[in-house]
Amino acid sequence: MPPPISCIASPPWAAAMWRESWPDQSGDITRALRDADLPAPAMLAGRDGAAAGRRFNVYRNNVAHGLIEALGSIFPAVKAQCGEARFADAARLYLAAHPPRSRLVFEHGRDFAAFLDAFEPARHTMPWLADLARLERAWLDAYHAEDALPMQPATLADVAPDDLAAQCFRAHPAATVIVSRFAVHDLFEAGRAGQVIATPLVPQACLVTRPALSVEVRLLPGGGAVFFSALLSGESLGSALAAALAAAPGFDIPAALAALLQSGAMCAGPDAAS
Amino acid sequence: MAHRFPSRSVRAMAGASFKPQHLDAILNDAQPGVFFEVHAENYMGAGGPAHAALTRICERHPVSLHGVAMSLGGPDALDPDHLARFAALVQRYEPALVSEHLAWSSHADVHYNDLLPLPYTDDTLSHVCAHVSQMQDAIARPILLENPSTYLLFRHSSWSETDFLREISRRTGCGLLLDLNNVFISAINHGTSADAYLAAFPLDRVGEIHLAGHDTQADDAGLPLLIDTHDRAVPDPVWSLYRRVIGQIGPVPTLVEWDADLPDWPVLKAEAHAAAHIMHSLSAMGRRHVA
Q: What's the domain range around A79?
């Protein structure tokens, strides 16, 4: 009967070839996993004691490919806008500079937008990538955010007109505003449909929400980002409207109130009946 | 908020990986007749569609919680946050089975997102046993520890993998998850015998079996190098190992893993039902194992 998988006898010279403790050995393995120029650690063997060679590269590739794929699944529109090969190059450099700390893959890529801000090739040719990455990261945060019941239309309908301006709400856990000098909403929509936009030079702002189980990304009109940012930071409805009007004199108040109720960005305030 | 799902037995049941893409097909399936296994980490967010889907699955099916990132085989201390998240999931969903890997995936606070191999020595044995016990304490129940698929070996290993697993099980009380695809992959990759491995495996400790498909590549010497891809149907040699084990020990909860290049739900379900058929036909032949 052939022997079961077991140890391979070490030649007498071998003991000097690797460090003694498992913490040291695993450190040598991860160093070689991250640096393709390093040889596979000598403690590792292929079949019949052969050098690990290509077998170690399977782990190297699994690690690199797995983390790049994970990043691509978090930032599909960024990947679509820059193309698979350029995305993989950027992801590789990002992961080398910012090794992922979280065991939860959906938490990865938190610094990716900041990385793209400073990433020379992107800064010159596609300066909008960083904001697009911010929007996609916000999308995934909204997806996994805590469940909460958004404010119901009746909540506002029950408020006496004189008291409306003083109303404050709580931010829904999934709600975020993303503001950009570029057409980040169009880039997001196109990228997630696998399309490319060449020169997205119009400033756009988005409201990201998840009122129930679907994440929604709304293009905000002028003043909309100011309005929702103010509400999300706890300012009263009156003060948020005033700030929006100051930022955009043509700010459409009825449309803003409709968006407030439809988007699910806010939950009933601490004073309202839940 | 405590959801209480009916306690469901998975004894003699076959199961399939749960993929959100299959949710509607599963819910519309009048008689799936299977249990589902999920990767625990995918359900460690605060809320949203992932939890909503798993809640619906749990209402109708037994669920197995399969961790992929605890890094039990690593030298570092287990991540207390990760332990707490895992414990919260166990409490919330009351899974029928809980499992993790004889492998490591994190080192010095960096997550490598892969199941990396470890040497089998007295040193690593104490590391792994301490980690398994710590995880079992954290979730207040025993786990099943899965045998890995490996592409290389450690020159200084002093334990066979089967003895190493037996000793971990003896010291910690954990059960074992016997992944037959991994057994086959490792045997081909190292030029050893899957039958001999199974003969040496502590089958009395097996609480679940995994079946899956793999890819075939070659190493530097042109020798076959099987890669654990979970992207296709279970191949014949793995089914043969399965018949052999079930014939020997009787029905065991059996999961068909499929994680990439997903087929439609009926294809995956048919794979799970094939496993159920083998379990039932072999036990009908009176070869039922007395546990």
A: 14-125
